[in-house]
Amino acid sequence: MAEVLVYVDHVDGAVRKPTLELLTLARRLGEPVAVALGAGAEATAATLGEHGAVRVLTADAPEFADYLVVPKVDALQAAYDSVSPAAVLLPSSGEAKEIAARLAVRIGSGLITDAVDLEAGDEGPVATQSVFAAAYTAKSRVSKGVPVITVKPNSAQVEPSAAAGTVEALQVSFGATATGTKVVSRTPRETTGRPELTEAAIVVSGGRGVNGAENFSVIEALADSLGAAVGASRAAVDAGWYPHSNQVGQTGKSVSPQLYIASGISGAIQHRAGMQTSKTIVAINKDSEAPIFDLVDYGIVGDLFDVVPQLTDEVKAR
Ligand code: FAD
């Protein structure tokens, strides 16, 4: 059976959920071989094995921590050369997309980014993408080389599947450019205790209708009752009510949660571009003609300051 390389996103050995989703999708294409790099790489093996990785190739070196992405590209290319996979899958994080693009150039392959589904095809994997500000769903296939594909978080239900997950050390020799750009400092982002926006299973977003930074506490309360991340429309971000790192849309982040709740958001195409692939969409808007109602599964016409606290109370009561 063909092997499929899966690039592992982990923090000190704790595997992040998008990688487990990738392993589920990879099994549709062949046998997953995981590539884990950096501190704690070996500690990922048990989890990766429980989710179908037949082998885990690991490497740790100071270069991974001290320099930008090129050492990781060198390592992934070493894994690619040793495995000769049928496809290379990476999560659609900012860093992994850069690694994917650089690898695709090096191995002369085509690249598909931000896939929301993957299936095996007669001529190679077929990826589903949401394109042109989510106005179209496209099925794409790489026609040159071994496909390199990045997949958006929440694109698949994680399905555990036991496999060996045996650890093999990956031999990496870093290229001349690996140490070209050094990390000089890191500033940890302020933690809110909420899930990362792009990985969250539930996102509660507020827009111009929230009408002020202080009123975002209403959105946050609902988010916290659901264990959700908080998103914002560009109008709310441009008004300075919420940080740009929480903006959802064409010029913000792209999310694909199980549940997206939009409050006081009209549903402009640029906002849809970042959330239209959500599995279930709920909107709360006092204007029954708001375009957001064209794409929702459940719509509530009403004032968000009445509706959202009631929802929060109801969720908390359960
Ligand atoms: P509005 O369109 O003003 O809608 C506010 C809504 O709140 C209205 O429907 C109103 O009925 C409702 N409302 C008001 N008060 C209440 C209340 N008390 N209770 C319930 N409902 C209420 N936008 C993004 O979001 N993300 C992007 O990434 C993005 N990128 C862009 C890129 C470009 C190049 C351009 C040109 C635009 C971009 N935009 C983006 C902006 C986009 O076009 C819209 O202007 C923006 O999404 C509007 O935000 P909004 O829905 O919060 O505000």
TrEMBL record:
Its cofactor is FAD. The keyword Nuclease does not apply. GO terms for biological process: fatty acid beta-oxidation using acyl-CoA dehydrogenase. Gene3D superfamilies: HUPs, TPP-binding domain. Keywords: Electron transport, FAD, Flavoprotein, Transport. Belongs to the ETF alpha-subunit/FixB family. This is Electron transfer flavoprotein subunit alpha/FixB family protein.
